[in-house]
Structure formats: C-alpha cells, structure tokens
Design goal:
The protein has 187 residues and is an all-alpha fold. The protein has 10 helices and no strands. The radius of gyration is 31 Å and the shape is elongated.
Length: 187
Amino acid sequence: MSAVVSPLQAASNADRSIVGPARVARVAPNSFEALFDAHYERLVRALTVVAGNREIAADAVQDAFVKAHLHWGKISRYDDPSGWVRRVAINRLRDEHRRTRRKRRAIQRIHAQPTAPNVVPEIDEFARLLAALPRQQRLTTALYYIDNLTVAEIAGTLEISEGTVKSHLHDARRRLRPILENEAHHD
C-alpha cells in the first residue's frame, strides 16, 4: 500500500531529489499554512541549538510567524518568505540574548552596591504610622522619607506642583506629630 502524499510534499520531495535540501527552503509555498508546516519545527530545532533552550527558540520562531502572518500579503511575494521568517526569528533571539545580558548586568550592579549606612525606621512601623494619613499625604511622605526623593522629583513623579508636595508633607507631619509625641511619652 502506498502512502498518501500531498501535492506540496510531492513538490518538496521532487525539489530535494533534484537540487538538495537548500532548494526546499527557497520554494515559495502557496499559503501561509504551507510555509508554517514546512519550516516551523525545523527552524525551532535549529534555533534551539543556538539558544540552548527550546522554549526561547520556539517563542522566537512563533513571533516571526506571527509577524509573517500579519504581513502575509507582502511577504508571500518575496523570493524567499521562509528566509524572511528565519531572519526575524534570529533577530528575536538576538534581542532576547541582549535583554538577558542587560538583566544579568543590572542584577550584578544591584548586588554590588553597598547598603546605605543611615538607619531608616522599620518599614512596618513607618507603614503603620502612614496608614493614618490620607492617600496623597501617605504617598508623598513615603516617596520623601523612604525613597529619598526631593520635593521636585516627587512633584514630577506625581504630576503636581512643588507647592502641593510641600503642603502634603507639612500636613502629614502635622498629623503625625501628636501620634509620635504620644508614643514618646509612653516609652
């Protein structure tokens, strides 16, 4: 009994026997689905060797095919649509590699930084004190005392005027003063 072979497979087999596997990559398929079926798994295997991780390689290839699908009207007219997909997948892998390297370097820099010598009140204690404040005062106070932002930086971050930041800080201090004085008397 002979196996059923699709016309696309027959054409691919004929091309292989005539010119070898390199010719198959250049045969423009009739549809996006044919391109995907013919090249997805093989490209994932090849890029897995490069990336060292099948999931990363599969993500890169999948992204490339998604882009090809979105622009299929244009890409289908290229001499080598599979080459375009391959190039996009390789670029995606390179981007992933760069992102991973930057992330690793950032983590190393963070771990290499010395801890601040000044003693900051315990965050849980400070959070308990700030919980009594309205949200905007709590936010400006936390940014000022915990994140060590300047009034100008807080104003820029919250998109409010410096005067408003100063007002929130003043009101927060005014509200916290009796609480702190009361706790100081009980210690």
